[in-house]
Description:
The complex is a heterodimer of chains A (about 100) and B (about 300).
Chain A: E1 10-16, E2 23-30, H1 34-45, E3 53-58, H2 70-73
Antiparallel strand pairs in A: 1-2, 1-3
Chain B: H1 3-15, H2 28-47, H3 49-53, H4 62-87, H5 93-101, H6 119-136, H7 145-173, H8 177-196, H9 208-213, H10 221-239, E1 249-251, E2 256-258, H11 264-274, H12 278-291, H13 293-311
Antiparallel strand pairs in B: 1-2
Helix pairs in contact in B: 2-4, 4-7, 6-7, 6-8, 6-10
One fe (ii) ion binds near residues 75, 129 and 158 of chain B.
Amino acid sequence: MSNENKEWPLWEVFIRSKAGLDHKHAGSLHAADAQMAIENARDVYTRRMEGISIWVVESNHIHASNPEEAAAFFDPAQDKIYRHPTFYNLPDELKHM
Amino acid sequence: MTQVSFEASFQKKIDEEIMIEPQDYMPDEYRKTLIRQISQHAHSEIVGMLPEANWITRAPSLRRKAVLLAKVQDEGGHGLYLYSAAETLGITRDQMLHQLHTGAAKYSSIFNYPTITWADMGAIGWLVDGAAIMNQVPLCRTSYGPYARAMVRVCKEESFHQRQGYEIMLSLAKGTPVQKQMAQDALNRWWAPALMMFGPLDAVSPNTAKSMEWRIKRFTNDELRQRFIDVTVEQIRILGLELPDANIKWNEERGHYDSSELNWDEFWNVVKGNGPCNKERLATRVKAWEDGAWVREAASAYAEKRKTKKAA
Ligand SMILES: [Fe+2]
Ligand SMILES: [Fe+2]
């Protein structure tokens, strides 16, 4: 009854909600192959016209940054406020820039 | 970091409303509590398809049939979002299904009551989905990211469920005397079980304090139950039906409606498996799983064949 270890692989689903926007992570599901994953994703994640395009990728192909090292990993960007436009002092009479 | 400092920084994140994600440190007890709660929730969505599926072929019009079919399909989707959320905590889909099929895992007791008339489709959408929404809206801000995101999706889809149910009740309540009686009877039967969906009284709910501290829960069972009573009384009046409990009375001092104490013996009895439909519901799920075995195997074999063909 339990059918252990014969589970279909897990897939991550990414959906483009309308033309011009990025594909965004929507969730995951199980499917035997990519074709089935795309069809299941349509039924599970786009029942109300939430998408016009679907990407699926097997979850075990995703590599992620390590959350425990996040502070050190993202540290290089922390002290570079000159990368933002608001860092620069320009005269008030400069209207268009 | 030591174990103690891990736990302190975990609780600090919770207190600062920073969501916990799958790869983050979390105490074992937090993980266990979430696996239990999310998988129970998923099972409830899936088993919850059964009482309503019972009426799809007998819906009184094509419109009602299309709506009921869409609702039951949504519930299937809700189960799938939630199973995926639980899987991020390290339990597999098959393990969860095994727990359901062997009776090791619970699902909401409400689905162990029978749906004997068409009016039950109205009462379920209105009261059962209504109570579920009351429970689920705060869960959109629960501390575990995948669970919160699944709940946002679920809540967006739930509001039509409640409205279609109320519309069914409205048609019956404004219909012939027999139809009105049917609506009243459904309200009377579903009222107490719907209130029990919020779980046991706070005084005897041992997990509540910890769940509140971890921001898994944001309101207690009794708070949500009271809130549900307060909004539903008004909805009953608009239907023109009688209140299902003679002790429902506005309490000026509390600013809430008073109502009868619920029959908690019945509650625990259904939880233990002795409700009117426990055996039938479980048997239906197990049969669906077993009957689907050849489909799962065939799909795996087909995928394997295509993979080797591509490689060749
Ligand atoms: Fe649902
Ligand atoms: Fe629902």
